[in-house]
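Page 37, top half.
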Amino acid sequence: MRVALDDVHVRLGGRDVLRGVTLEITERRVAVIGANGSGKSTLARLLNGLVLPTSGRVLVDGLDTRRRGRDVRRRVGFVFADPDAQIVMPTVAEDVAYSLRRSGLSKRQVAARVVAELERQGLADHADHPAHLLSGGQKQLLALSSVLAADPRLVVADEPTTLLDLRHARAVTERFAALEQHVVLVTHALDLVAGFDRVLVVDDGRVAVDDVPEVAVPAYRRLMGC
């Protein structure tokens, strides 16, 4: 899996959110950290075409997000900070099945994939449960299940632990870390990026630091004056 950003600028609401970002991502586990308003969430949204560059280009396995957005989104799943924004169907199983509505699979194949994914995420006993009545951690795992059911090659998660307490945040992060897919994780929880292959520190619209966690996290703390 290869994602490349080539001199990417993003201007939103009259403000330069990202400026001249050039990088290549091939590692399995990449974390993105930075202060609020730094541009890190915009960077994440570029990776599956939720945001398009004002100039420059983003390529996912050679596919330009501007021209091949649908194909890119088949390869790149996105998990939002608030799972309620992502849950659209009444029950847990229905919500996962909804993500497969354009997959071309038969009803039997869809049902089998839903069961397998819910079992993998520890939600099998909640298949018929009202989705919006799950706990915060369970909702985030449901959102992840719906993304994974579509079998993406890359999962991008934008602060998926923001609304969770520390115990559930760690559990959700561990699920992401154990995925077979490539993962790009945007997070404020610096202790949760240990073990990642690479950390990008975004500051004022630019990638200020790009290194292993042991180097990038202390550099970010210094940047923030901590």
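Page 37, bottom half:
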Amino acid sequence: MIQWWPLYGLKRKLTERKEYVSSVKLRFSTAGIFNRSLFVYVIDTGSSNALNFEISALETPQYNIHRYGIYLTDSPRHADVLLVLGHPVKIMTAPLKETISQLPKPFYIVTIDDNPNQPDAGEYPVLPNHIAALTGVPSPSQILGILLDIAKIKRKQP
């Protein structure tokens, strides 16, 4: 005899939260700058691989950043936000500066430093338009909250 299991959540999406919030406040306002889509370029300058997994989780159906008009781009020339992962090691400071020089204006930079006490980490370079800094390995919800704050997109779902 077949026993049927009850199905829950057919009328609402159980994987999507009602709100995505971030505990980090932006350093300055982005009001009126990004009216439509927000394109994000990710550069890994010396992080552990954990941050890459958190970034790739943003495109899964659970978080689905595309519904907010936020897209990961393959070129810094198309990006509005540069997401710098990890503390830059010495060999990556030149590629980071080159990437920043290719960003179109206006742009913003968000840094995520997963290991702030790294022994061989040098001086953190001065970054223009550095709007937010996260430490540790944030969850995809926190990263999405920062991006929504930058985009000034309505957070609550209908």
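Margin note: The beta strands are 38-44, 70-72, 81-85, 108-113, 130-135.
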